[in-house]
Amino acid sequence: MAHGAISQTSLLEALAGTDRLSELLPILHGHAVEALQARSSILFQFDRTGEWLRATSAYGLDRLPTEPWPSGGGLVPEPLFRDLLPIYIGDLTLSSKSVSEYLGTPSAVLIPLAHMDARMGVLAVGCGAEPTVEALRSVMPVGHAFALALHRANAARDTELQRDLRGLLQDFSQAVSSSLNLSTGLEALCVGVNPLFGADRTSIWLHDRRARMMRLTASSDATAFPDPREVPTADAVAPAAAALRRECAVLTPDAGTSSKALITVPLKGRRRAIGAVVMEGVRLEPGSEMELLERADEMGRQLAAAVENVVLLDDVLRSRQELDNTFNSLADLVVVCNHDGRIVHVNKTFCDRSGRPRDEIVDRPLDDLLAPGTQELLARALERPPHADGTVVRAELEDPALKGTFLMTVTPLMDEVQRPVGAVLVARDVTPHAQLEAERAELRNKLVQSEKLAALGEFVAGIAHELNNPLQGVLGHLELMRATGAFPKALRRDVQTIYREADRAAKIVRNLLVFAGSRRLVRKRVSVNAALTRVFALRAPAFRAEGIELVHDKTDNLPRLKADPLMLQQAFLNIVLNAEQAIGMNGRIEVRKALLDNPARLVVEIRDTGPGLPADVLPRVFEPFYTTKEVGKGTGLGLAIAYGIIQEHGGQISAANHPDGGAVFSVQLPIEPAGEPR
């Protein structure tokens, strides 16, 4: 008992004297060997999985074993940790021959090392003979001292590791915060890992899930990695890809030396695999492998959490940027407002259309930027009762404030309990579409009008030809009777009346033939300016008498047209007469000319300041015998004749109302390439 008491006192003095395992373990080994009167001892510690034992220190051996032993083998008999008492193994060669060879004895005492029910390892002491029960009892405090020393060392190591990792992660966070770049932070972390683990080079590879690749993101020595700096996740050889598939750090000794190793550490996030840390040229000390792997795993856990947070933040920022880019690239006008009608967010298209920067728009009442019609549409969405669903409100409106016609869509914004908290207004500019539809409708109307007039022309031509033949016969006989006087003198006046009315009928037939395009044209090189000048010279006295002002844009260098000069003059005269009659007294006639390409054509516009053409008159203005004048003041053939002449020349004529009032007739005539300037 005295010897046991002295041993316990010595153990307490040893534990109190130092906390460095390198100094303490040899003393404890000596106590164990002395208590059992043995020759050697080996300290085995469980690895992190608890499935393997590794030798971490020894006494009385030439060298420390490096191979692992399974925890289910002869070193851990079933009663050892159940009873927590030393066990004597008489023939260790039967269960662990290699351990017996290292100890140099066939028998050994196995001492369990546990702290707070946690298995820490086994102390194997080689004995030449079976120890007494007293000796086995006296060695138990030595086992407790080993367990306490290991636990204290682990706690001190954990504290030191946490401090080092805390500093490492602080450097990482500062680098990320200052640069807002994950790669910059990871590079700073790689540089800090090297001295922490005694590594020559550290690299961090991140997992690209979509591409199924591991990409080199940071390294303490990036020049050591040739391009391409990526490997498939399925690669069986690449250390980074292999680490991604593991659950804990792995140490692989270098092939050329036993003093250095490669350590790979998987980075596992809460939801997915993030990547891997690869440390090359890690310096090894005998028995330090377990400590290195534990430190590596702890670093991997903390680093994975930090990197995952940064990656998530980076994903959020990137998603926000992509959302903003998408939001601002929309061609539609988009504005978000709260329930008070104040603007919360707008896209670039809305800012451009309103002519104001975003800073001046946000937090302003939306009504300040919209026309009344749009305001009413928005109010309908915002004033929905609390129990209303999120029904979308749509309408096509013209908004002068936004300068166009828009297809408006107002979608209510609902909170988590389905109460309206605002609205999203999307305005699609349909002004070009509306203009296109109007142009299409106008073209359709022109086509219908042209087809109708063409059909009418064929019909009129047939009738005119049938009427022209008997009329010419009547006029011929009347001329013969007038020349020979072969009728009583009492009928002379009646014959003159018959001749005059027959001649008037013949002129009407000739005009109908002109409308139908049945008259042969005598084409020459004609100046449009000259033709218009002759028309205005004919009407100048009437203009002065009626107080009509003429504005004639005599554009120079207009090409000559190949046309019938008399017929072209007749067409312009009919249009001018129509304008003159529409004005009545005191007005203005404006004439402008222009050249158009594809195909080349000359455009003449004749505008009057009269009342314009009613909507029901426009489609029929070129029909023969259609007139709005009083009976006896017009035949309704003037514009029809002009239409026929222009059509016969391969041109087009159209009528419309001018925005400033009055009617405008547009004549387009083709220009042949041989046309020469005046």
Question: Overview of this structure, please?
Answer:
By secondary structure, the protein is of the alpha+beta class. It has five domains: about 1-160, GAF domain (Beta-Lactamase, 2-Layer Sandwich), CATH 3.30.450; about 180-325, Beta-Lactamase (2-Layer Sandwich), CATH 3.30.450; about 330-425, PAS domain (Beta-Lactamase), CATH 3.30.450.20; about 435-515, Helix Hairpins, CATH 1.10.287; about 525-670, Histidine kinase-like ATPase, C-terminal domain (Heat Shock Protein 90, 2-Layer Sandwich), CATH 3.30.565.10. Helix content is about 45%, strand content about 25%. It is built from 16 helices and 24 strands. The protein has helices at about 1-15, 20-35, 80-85, 95-105, 135-180, 180-195, 240-245, 290-330, 350-355, 360, 370-380, 430-485, 490-515, 530-545, 565-585, 640-650; strands at about 40-45, 50-60, 70, 85-90, 105-115, 120-125, 200-210, 215-220, 230, 250-255, 260-270, 275-285, 335-340, 345, 395-400, 405-415, 420-430, 525, 550, 560-565, 585-595, 600-610, 650-655, 665-670. Strands 3-2-1-6-5-4 form a six-stranded antiparallel sheet. Strand 5 and strand 6 form a beta hairpin. Helix 2 (about 20-35) packs antiparallel against helix 5 (about 135-180) and helix 5 runs antiparallel to helix 6. The longest helix is centred in the C-terminal third of the chain and has 54 residues, at about 430-485. The termini are far apart. The model is unreliable at about 1-5 and about 675-678 (pLDDT under 50).
